[in-house]
Amino acid sequence: MMKRRSHRVYLLAAALIFIMSSLTACVPGGGAAMPENTPAQTKGPDTGNKPMAFKSVDSLKPEVYESLSGFSVDLFRRMNAEDISSNIFLSPLSVWLALGMTYNGASGGTAEGMAQALHVTDLPIGDLNSDNAGLMGILRAADPNVQIAIVNSIWVRDSFASAVNEDFLSANKKHYDAAIEALDFSKDDAAGIISDWVEDNTNGNIKDMIEPPIDPLTVMFLINAVHFKAPWKQAFDPKDSRDGVFATSDGEEVQVKYLFRKEGNFGYMDDTVTAVRLPYSNGRLEMVAVLPQRQALGEYIEELTPEKLAEIITKCGETSLALLFPKFKLEYEAELNDVLKAMGMAEAFDPVSADFSALSEQFGTELYISKVRHKSFIEVNEEGTEASAATSVEINRESAPMRMEFNKPFLFLIRDSKTGAILFIGTVADPS
Which pTM was predicted? Predict the structure, then answer.
């Protein structure tokens, strides 16, 4: 279910609001403390950003960037198609990392479907893991004046903890800095403990991530949280802010507060699109906003591709323009099950067909994804931008009943169970 707003603001972004440019130099990453698999006694696992190995942008495989870009645009385009009149704000990076951890537990056709959804069919899982670790480190260290927190955690029902494969936990600890915590999901405060962890790691912006009570069938939550706060490289003067009219996608005109800056804006305009790049702090991170001129926004997004987006971003900066840009504050939430199924990973959600044997050798064929939930927040004002997002992948265990398939010739009869008298008897050789 989505939280709706009366008018829509569109931020075109590859990962959260991050569009990375000039990613150079070796930078340290961040890590998380890894508690043992014992029942939680505290508010949640520690996820301090501890340094990982140094890694440069050039050392990451270009396939990872291409896959993340493809996944980001694909996910956003499909979410927009579901609801073209409301505000939408996603962190593809958050969804990507939460599903990346889950992907380490998938096997067989389930893994193949997840690879298709993530746009990584030609990328070995080991390469994906190591480059995601590098990507998190690069982003965390992108700008010392920008707050970027990227944290992951895995919460396991305490009675199921012994059934989780150690290789699965080790891969997610090593590559995703995932904190692991066993927790009694039957306790009244279990959902609150996990939600508090998310809230603590998003500066209080993402609340109530896990809805109580936790389903008795749920055995695991894989969670990513992202928080971003940055000042503009060139702040907008509050004295220049002004009231103005915003034309919504419904044709309504609403009064909003606009930021205004006469010069220093890196933009691009032609008869099809207006676009602007708004750099933060040292210029490494930036917001990119795109306004279609001829097409309705929904039509434009439907035709959007990573290549088209990259071309627009490249052209931004060709012209110095005065800028009028709305101040806004949004909250958004959505369940991503249907969209992810359509992207290729339907089997992962099927209680009968899903195979998570790499997560649990003992019970892998009884595990499936029951819900992927995403929540996000953003505020844009004269000083800069604050944005947060979280993604939760919920894993359930349900012993599927043995299925009997009468798919070849069979005998049948109708009888009285008390006397044993057979009223009718026959065979079906061809039911068609």
Answer: 0.83
